[in-house]
Amino acid sequence: MKTELQLIVRPTEIDVNGHVNNAKYLEYLEWGREEWYEAMGLPYNKLLQEGFQTVTVNININYRKECVQNDRLTVITEPEKAGNSSYVLKQTIMNETNVVCADAVVTSVTMDPSSRKSKPLPEMLRKFFPANQL
């Protein structure tokens, strides 16, 4: 299942070049992932209650088209694949004319909050991913 988060580029997100700062795209992606977790019924507190956390270990992002103030963007987040303790979410940032502004592949790992070590992906998260494995 994929989610779509709508947002508007604000003046504070613009850098000296007059477009969205590269680091801000990472925030947009994070907001999109949080939206995805919430839509899947996996808010942070529920994950903790089940004895695990998620941590981002790699983001591979492509900046395709600049975004400017007042652009209306959509952050699309969808599950791509899952391994033993890691999983990959594919994310795309589209503008209002359906042009891809950025796309990313984000790898996260499930972790035991006490030991701070990776642990197997729980079924409550794994079930959202296709059958193919990492």
From TrEMBL:
Class of this enzyme: hydrolase
An annotated Gene Ontology molecular function: hydrolase activity
Signal peptide: none
UniProt keyword annotation of Zinc present: no
Known EC number: 3.1.2.-
Keyword presence, Hydrolase: yes
InterPro entries tied to this protein: 4-hydroxybenzoyl-CoA_TE, HotDog_dom_sf, YbgC/YbaW
Protein name as annotated: Acyl-CoA thioesterase
Species name: Paenibacillus polygoni
Upper taxonomic lineage: Bacteria, Bacillati, Bacillota, Bacilli, Bacillales
